[in-house]
């Protein structure tokens, strides 16, 4: 399964518990089907910093369904200290002598619950520290990624499980292009492995480099489980070019009222035997039904005439009829399934192009408060192209708040910030900080609730400017400072790529600045691995969609000896000695201690204070925005 | 131990890890001394919503030190479904077949980590849900409390462990006065129990009813472990009147630079045998040393003459000497203890009454950046009474921010809000909401990070006013509304007690409004218990401070049969069946399902929007305040 988004709309009185209920259903299915393990494709949590309630509910479900006496029938052959190198307990949870795990969960992180902040922790790390989830597929470097698989064996079947937690699409795209993504392969019997890869990225093209083309992925892979995309396309689809299959489970909850989310939600039960696989779809019963329909008013000239004074009532009656029909369908569907929530999600998209006027959504909604889970946004009015672009106009927050969120409108905080400064009066324009940097920082503040993001950016850009001034000895000439600061800022702004780099560096360095913790540098794993060509002999079966033969070795794969035996040893010696064993388990790695830098007290001139106040003003605006159901349609 | 305040100053580059290090030391001591269990007196966390890093570090420590194969030698005789009735897993963690616990922790919550929000969860509940802490001593009612002990037995020794998590002092004071606090007692062999009570309240008088006098506590108690107070007074002190002993462990970290915190920090190893006890003090080695000294300039007329132009330099040199002396002492102490952090905390309080001028703290601080953990607030200047009261003056936030926090100044957000509106111009004064309500809501927002507190209050007071208007049919007469709203508001404000009730109701009801969860009502426990008089025959020993004889039964204690046997049964049947056993374990309780109320869409007039904007303005201010190290000196 993937994209469970625990905590999505958790405060909604109707939909608040949806994600928790469905998560329980998924784990219940896992238990019922006696799976060997659960594989999650990221975004288990909707928020980067999940609420206490969400973490609590999640822990409750995991402890309830994933602990128990049912024995685990597979073993791990890879070096777990490498697989789980970012965990404080770098071994699989079911081998921990202190935890009685019946269903191990393996999960990568998604873009919603990715590592952030000075400590670079993510919500999954709390679960992994509690011993209830095995978080894997993390990569520390932003330039180069080596993906080391978890090697699993059950009887004669061996699975190499590769994972890659969410990374900004553009960055990963660039790394692929620059051949900086390497999938390590087991040295012995390279072709006896079923290679399973789980990834959480855009699969559909959102821009030139804002997605990951399937062609980028290695062709020795047998099955890709693709997270992040919410539409359920769980039946494995062959990629003819690369000879692998792609299964896209889709989200377990409807987070946007778009067509893709109206597709029935499923999870998959994957059987692997040798190199054959079979995916069994399981429909989720607790997911709130979502019905959606489109109406183009201009397509009904017989019914609607824009000049008719009563046309609005006619349109309203027509829409009501459509909604009622969807409600009937939903009710019929629900009767066959007692686990389905009572009130469905309903969305009617009304194209009112052609001189029509939209009617009051408010009154319309009130009629459906008791019948529909999303009464406030049942109707979505839109017009085609003829609508004029609204660039450059002032932002009226009151206006934004009262307007319902629509699918088409993806409100990016970053853009708001830019717009704000572009249209602002001279005296409140930025003179030292850049709009771009401020935008990213505010975005991080809002999206990830990183309280320090803005402070960190201000400090970084201020220090950078101070350094510039000092190097040029301009800081001595009081009158020239303002002028030089402006020049310096302009020259950075003009070079888009440089600014991009700068902003990224700012966010990263600022975090590192703060951290006194030892930074973990993985240095050993690569040395033990050797380059090797890959050769495979295929296997096909009528019943099972077989993974296909290929003989082409790319020389990218690398090999390694199985080192699994020590895991048993570790398991027993650890009993009751958690503190010492942790050290021994990680002894093969190198720690590099980054000493804390004493932050020098700012030799700040009033200019920075002025900018700071501007930032806090922005805080007020965006705090305001985030307190309303206004998160746009992020997946 | 108590008041570990995990996460206190976690972002401070020097002191950030102090609380985590000391928590590990405490658990290490528990392990080394092979304790039966750890008892914590609240405020394990400093923040009501601890950061990801704090929760992660805490889980790490607990899993490392409290899990393992060492067997547990005591059993629980009481009904665990009552003791842990608010837990999703209402049994002690070491009896859970899926967890291998070597050191069970029992903890009440403090005022810092108390349950808040619609879900009424607290940070400890996350640990308890993960199976790493046994959270007890919770009470749902705000009017009446029955404290049901956890009954423990090891060999011939039986301990009745009573706990009461933090409750606002005034409220608990009132409940005690109204005889609404009942400590339930075991029916059989009532006097064979060692009665241990852990509480987290003000012990020293902070106002008429703003503390809990020891005399309020039942005299059948043998030992009170008193949390919340940070000064270490761990050696049990007899209360002559009530015949019990009080041990005040004090905090494990210095959170304010006041004299009480300069007392050496300890934890206690409590031995109980029959009804005798012995407390062994263990000094904490990882706590940052804190040296403090007071200087009264006027006491040195030979050294300082206010009229001398160089007096400021002389004072500065004098202070520097004092600081150096403290640093020498700290260094000497540290040499004997390699675990002590390098940089000590230093505080020099300088009374400059008598016409002296304080020197620049900023420059002074810079000299000690590399030597002292709190360079910015080493010196604290103060003057005695002659200082004029500053009431009614405008708040200058810039001023507040640049001034270091001083001991004497406890900045309450609530008071700031009141002050803000009192001094505000007419047009931004409140016309519908009350200052008091707004103050409490903002306080909750800041202290507990309850994002919804303000929204909830606004909604509550708005609805209340609307109801009032509707009942009087004033809502039809547009012109009269403003006038009536003002009157209604004034009449509520004048009655302080009524307003107090209203604000409390607002916060509680608003929370309940939101919650769709079933509310748990404990109804069964009392019925099984009977009133009984208490009789005891004392016991004394030279070595051990004995608990003293008493024959006076208050008739307040109640009795119950031991029901412990089922715990073993539950423990084994639960293995691997977490989901079903939870239901059976709680079957003796009554659930009352509170149906969610559909929030009606506001028939709001613009007035509320105006107020809302005012609130968001406040947000900006207080967000601003909280982002600086400005939390006052809350314990």
Automatic annotation (TrEMBL), chains A, B:
<dbReference type="GO" id="GO:0000781">
    <property type="term" value="C:chromosome, telomeric region"/>
</dbReference>
<comment type="function">
    <text>Core component of the MRN complex, which plays a central role in double-strand break (DSB) repair, DNA recombination, maintenance of telomere integrity and meiosis. The MRN complex is involved in the repair of DNA double-strand breaks (DSBs) via homologous recombination (HR), an error-free mechanism which primarily occurs during S and G2 phases. The complex (1) mediates the end resection of damaged DNA, which generates proper single-stranded DNA, a key initial steps in HR, and is (2) required for the recruitment of other repair factors and efficient activation of ATM and ATR upon DNA damage.</text>
</comment>
<keyword id="KW-0269">Exonuclease</keyword>
<keyword id="KW-0469">Meiosis</keyword>
<dbReference type="GO" id="GO:0000723">
    <property type="term" value="P:telomere maintenance"/>
</dbReference>
<dbReference type="GO" id="GO:0035861">
    <property type="term" value="C:site of double-strand break"/>
</dbReference>
<feature type="domain" description="Mre11 DNA-binding">
    <location>
        <begin position="277"/>
        <end position="445"/>
    </location>
</feature>
<dbReference type="GO" id="GO:0030145">
    <property type="term" value="F:manganese ion binding"/>
</dbReference>
<keyword id="KW-0472">Membrane</keyword>
<dbReference type="InterPro" id="IPR029052">
    <property type="entry name" value="Metallo-depent_PP-like"/>
</dbReference>
<keyword id="KW-0234">DNA repair</keyword>
<dbReference type="InterPro" id="IPR007281">
    <property type="entry name" value="Mre11_DNA-bd"/>
</dbReference>
<dbReference type="GO" id="GO:0031573">
    <property type="term" value="P:mitotic intra-S DNA damage checkpoint signaling"/>
</dbReference>
<feature type="compositionally biased region" description="Polar residues">
    <location>
        <begin position="582"/>
        <end position="591"/>
    </location>
</feature>
<dbReference type="GO" id="GO:0097552">
    <property type="term" value="P:mitochondrial double-strand break repair via homologous recombination"/>
</dbReference>
<dbReference type="GO" id="GO:0000724">
    <property type="term" value="P:double-strand break repair via homologous recombination"/>
</dbReference>
<keyword id="KW-0378">Hydrolase</keyword>
<dbReference type="InterPro" id="IPR003701">
    <property type="entry name" value="Mre11"/>
</dbReference>
<feature type="compositionally biased region" description="Basic and acidic residues">
    <location>
        <begin position="504"/>
        <end position="517"/>
    </location>
</feature>
<keyword id="KW-1133">Transmembrane helix</keyword>
<feature type="region of interest" description="Disordered">
    <location>
        <begin position="493"/>
        <end position="593"/>
    </location>
</feature>
<dbReference type="InterPro" id="IPR004843">
    <property type="entry name" value="Calcineurin-like_PHP"/>
</dbReference>
<keyword id="KW-0812">Transmembrane</keyword>
<feature type="compositionally biased region" description="Low complexity">
    <location>
        <begin position="562"/>
        <end position="571"/>
    </location>
</feature>
<keyword id="KW-0540">Nuclease</keyword>
<keyword id="KW-0539">Nucleus</keyword>
<keyword id="KW-0479">Metal-binding</keyword>
<dbReference type="InterPro" id="IPR041796">
    <property type="entry name" value="Mre11_N"/>
</dbReference>
<feature type="compositionally biased region" description="Basic residues">
    <location>
        <begin position="551"/>
        <end position="561"/>
    </location>
</feature>
<protein>
    <recommendedName>
        <fullName>Double-strand break repair protein</fullName>
    </recommendedName>
</protein>
<dbReference type="Pfam" id="PF04152">
    <property type="entry name" value="Mre11_DNA_bind"/>
</dbReference>
<keyword id="KW-0464">Manganese</keyword>
<dbReference type="GO" id="GO:0008296">
    <property type="term" value="F:3'-5'-DNA exonuclease activity"/>
</dbReference>
<keyword id="KW-0255">Endonuclease</keyword>
<dbReference type="GO" id="GO:0000014">
    <property type="term" value="F:single-stranded DNA endodeoxyribonuclease activity"/>
</dbReference>
<feature type="active site" description="Proton donor">
    <location>
        <position position="112"/>
    </location>
</feature>
<dbReference type="GO" id="GO:0007095">
    <property type="term" value="P:mitotic G2 DNA damage checkpoint signaling"/>
</dbReference>
<comment type="similarity">
    <text>Belongs to the MRE11/RAD32 family.</text>
</comment>
<keyword id="KW-0158">Chromosome</keyword>
<dbReference type="InterPro" id="IPR038487">
    <property type="entry name" value="Mre11_capping_dom"/>
</dbReference>
<dbReference type="Pfam" id="PF00149">
    <property type="entry name" value="Metallophos"/>
</dbReference>
<dbReference type="GO" id="GO:0030870">
    <property type="term" value="C:Mre11 complex"/>
</dbReference>
């Amino acid at each position: 399964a993937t994209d469970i988004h625990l905590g999505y709309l958790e405060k909604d009185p109707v939909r608040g518990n949806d994600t928790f209920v469905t998560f329980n259903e998924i784990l219940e299915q896992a238990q019922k089907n006696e799976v060997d393990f659960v594989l999650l494709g990221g975004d288990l949590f909707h928020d980067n910093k999940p609420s206490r309630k969400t973490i609590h509910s999640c822990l409750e479900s995991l402890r309830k369904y994933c602990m128990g006496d049912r024995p685990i029938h597979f073993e791990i052959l890879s070096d777990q200290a490498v697989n789980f190198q970012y965990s404080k307990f770098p071994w699989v949870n079911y081998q921990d002598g202190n935890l009685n795990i019946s269903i191990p969960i393996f999960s990568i992180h998604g873009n919603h619950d990715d590592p952030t902040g000075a400590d670079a922790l993510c919500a999954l790390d709390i679960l992994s520290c509690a011993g209830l989830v095995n978080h894997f597929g993390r990569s520390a470097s932003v330039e180069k990624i080596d993906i080391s698989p978890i090697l699993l064996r059950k009887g004669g079947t061996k699975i190499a499980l590769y994972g890659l937690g969410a990374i900004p699409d553009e960055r990963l795209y660039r790394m692929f292009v620059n051949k900086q993504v390497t999938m390590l392969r087991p040295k012995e019997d390279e072709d006896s492995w079923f290679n399973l890869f789980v990834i959480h990225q855009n699969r559909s093209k959102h821009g030139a480099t804002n997605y990951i083309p399937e062609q980028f992925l290695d062709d020795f892979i047998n099955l890709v489980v693709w997270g992040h995309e919410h539409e359920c396309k769980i039946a494995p689809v062959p990629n003819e070019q690369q000879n692998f299959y792609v299964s896209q489970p889709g989200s377990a909850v409807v987070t946007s009222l778009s067509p893709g989310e109206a597709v029935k939600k499923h999870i998959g039960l994957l059987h692997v035997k040798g190199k054959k696989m079979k995916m069994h779809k399981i429909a989720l019963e607790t997911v709130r039904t979502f019905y959606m329909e489109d109406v183009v008013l201009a397509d009904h000239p017989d019914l609607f005439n824009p000049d008719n004074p009563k046309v609005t009532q006619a349109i309203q009656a027509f829409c009501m009829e459509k909604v009622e029909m969807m409600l009937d369908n939903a009710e019929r569907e629900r009767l066959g399934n007692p686990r389905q929530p009572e009130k469905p999600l309903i969305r009617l998209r009304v194209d009112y192009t052609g001189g029509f006027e939209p009617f009051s959504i408010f009154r319309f909604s009130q009629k459906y408060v008791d019948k529909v889970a999303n009464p406030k946004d049942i109707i979505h009015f839109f017009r085609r192209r003829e609508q004029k672009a609204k660039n450059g106009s002032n932002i009226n927050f009151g206006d934004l708040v009262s307007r319902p969120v629509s699918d088409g409108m993806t409100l990016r905080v970053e853009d708001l910030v830019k717009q704000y400064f572009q249209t602002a009066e001279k005296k409140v324009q930025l003179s030292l900080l850049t709009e771009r940097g401020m935008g990213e920082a505010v975005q991080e503040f809002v999206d990830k609730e990183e309280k320090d993001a803005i402070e960190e950016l201000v400090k970084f850009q201020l220090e950078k400017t101070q350094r510039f001034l000092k190097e040029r000895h301009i800081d001595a000439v009081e009158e020239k400072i303002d002028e030089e600061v402006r020049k310096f800022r302009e020259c950075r702004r003009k070079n888009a790529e440089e600014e991009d780099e700068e902003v990224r560096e700012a966010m990263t360095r600022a975090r590192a600045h703060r951290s006194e913790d030892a930074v973990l540098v993985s240095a050993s794993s690569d040395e033990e691995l050797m380059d090797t060509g890959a050769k495979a002999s295929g296997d096909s079966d009528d019943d099972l969609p077989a993974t296909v033969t290929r003989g082409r070795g790319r020389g990218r794969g690398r090999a390694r000896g199985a080192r699994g035996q020590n895991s048993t040893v570790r398991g027993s010696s650890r009993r009751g000695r958690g503190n010492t064993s942790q050290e021994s388990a990680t002894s093969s790695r190198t720690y590099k201690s980054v000493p804390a830098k004493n932050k020098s007290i700012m030799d700040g001139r009033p200019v920075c204070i002025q900018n700071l106040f501007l930032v806090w003003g922005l805080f007020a605006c965006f705090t305001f925005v985030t307190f309303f159901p206004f998160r746009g349609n992020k997946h």
